[in-house]
Amino acid sequence: MIAPRTSSVLDFRHPVMWVGMVLFAAGAVRLAPAVVTVLVDAPGPGLLAFSLWTAYGLTLGLLVYRFEMFERRSLRTTAVAFASGAVLVPGIAMVASPALHGILASLRGGTSEWDSAIAAPLVEEPLKMLVVVALALIPGARVRNASDGLFYGVVVGLGFQVTENFLYSTQWSAQGTSLSVVMQTFVLRGFVTGLWSHATYTAITGAAVGFFFGSTRRLPTRTLTVVLSLGAAMLLHGFFNSPLLNLGVVPAAIIKGIPVLVLGLVTLRWVHLRERSALGADARDLVPDEHVSPADFAALSSRRVRQRARSRMAAQYGTGAAIAFGRLQRAQLDTLITAHDDGLESARYVQALQELRYARKDVAAATAPPAWLDTPDLPDDATTPSADAPAAADAEAAGSTESDALETAELPLTRARGAAPMGPDSAAVDSVDADAPDPMTTQAGHPSEESADQPRDAER
C-alpha cells in the first residue's frame, strides 16, 4: 500500500480531494434551495422532519462506528463519508434522476410505474459507490481492505438515506399539512424499511471496492467482483422500488427487504472471515509472540469472545480491571493491524507497541492484590502487651547498653588479632567501602537511614 502523505483524509495535495470538493459544492448548491423551501413553506413539519432524521442519522452512525469488527476507523474520515452521502450524492441525483426519467418517458412514449425502479438504481447506486472509490484513492483515508470498504459504504448509504427520507417526509407532509404524516413516514422509512435500504446497498458495493484495492488477486477477478456487487445492489434496489407484490405497504416492504438483508449479512460474514484470517496469519507469522501470540488472537477473534473475556475479568477483579482489559484487547488488535498495514518498522507500529505496554501495565495494576495483603505477619510468639512490658523493656535496654560497651572495648583487640595490617591498599579499600553509595538509596534519590552507619561498619 502507498504510505499516506498525511494522516487525514483531507489531503489537499491529492487531485481526488479537489474533485470531491467541487462536486460537494455543486451538490450543496442544488440541495440547499429544496431544504430552505421546505423549512419556509412548512416550518412545523419541516423542523420536525429535520430533527427526527438528524437524530436518526447521528444515532445509527454512532452505533455503526462503535460496532467495529476489529479496527476503529478515523472519525474524520467517517464524517467526510457521511457528509458526502448526505449532500454530494443527493444533490447530483436531483439532477441526474429527473433527466433519466425524461429519457425513459421519451423512449416509452409516456411515464410508467416502473420508472422509479429503473432510474433510481441506475443513478444512486453508482454515485454512492464512487464516493467509496474516491476515499480509497486518497491514501490518508486508509481504505485498504473489504472491511474498510464495507464500513464506509454503510456510512455513505446512511447519509444518503437520511437526506432522501427528510425530503420525502416534507413533501408528503406539505400535501397533507399534518405533523402525523412526518411521524408515519419516519416510522415507515426509518424502521420498517430502514434496515434494508441504502446503507445495505452501499455496504455490498463498498465491500467489493475495498476488496478491489486491498486484495492481491488478479485484476480480472477483482473487477468482476465490483461489477457483480454493483449489479446485485441495483437489482435489489430496483426490485424494492418495483410495483411487484402489491400486498400493502408494510408487508410488501418486509418481503422485498428479505433478499437485501440476506445478501447484506452474507457480505458481512464474508468480510469478517477475510479479516479474521488475515489477522490470524499476522499473529502467527509476522508479529512476535511476546507482543501478540496466536493464542492471544484466539481470544480476540470475535466480539463475542472478547466480551466474554471482559465479563470474566469483571467477575474476578471488578469493573476497573475489565475496562483495563478492554484497552489491552484494543491495543493488541491495533498492534496486529498496524503490523499488517504499515510493517514492523513503521512509526505507527512502534506507537502501537508503546500503547500495548501501557495497557499491560494497567491490567497488572488492576489485577494486583491490595496493599494490605503484603503486610508481614506478626511472629508466632508475639503477644498482647501486658502490665510487665515496661519493666521488661527497661531490662532489655540496659542489657543492650552493656553489650554495646563490651563490643566497643573489644574492637581494638579484634582489629589487632584478626585484621590485616593497615597499609595503603587496605586504607583504599576501607575508603572505597566507606564512601560507596547504597544502591537502594541511590535509586530513591535520597540517603536512607542505614547509610549513616556505613562508615562505622567499614571501620569494623
UniProtKB/TrEMBL annotation:
Keywords: Hydrolase, Membrane, Metalloprotease, Protease, Transmembrane, Transmembrane helix. Residues 370-460 are annotated as: Disordered. Residues 370-403 have a biased composition (Low complexity). GO terms for molecular function: metallopeptidase activity. Coiled coil: none annotated. InterPro entries: PrsW. Residues 447-460 have a biased composition (Basic and acidic residues). The chain crosses the membrane at residues 16-40, 46-65, 77-97, 117-138, 150-168, 188-212, 224-240, 252-271. The keyword Aminoacyl-tRNA synthetase does not apply. It holds the Pfam family PrsW-protease. The keyword Membrane applies. This is PrsW family intramembrane metalloprotease. It comes from Demequina capsici.
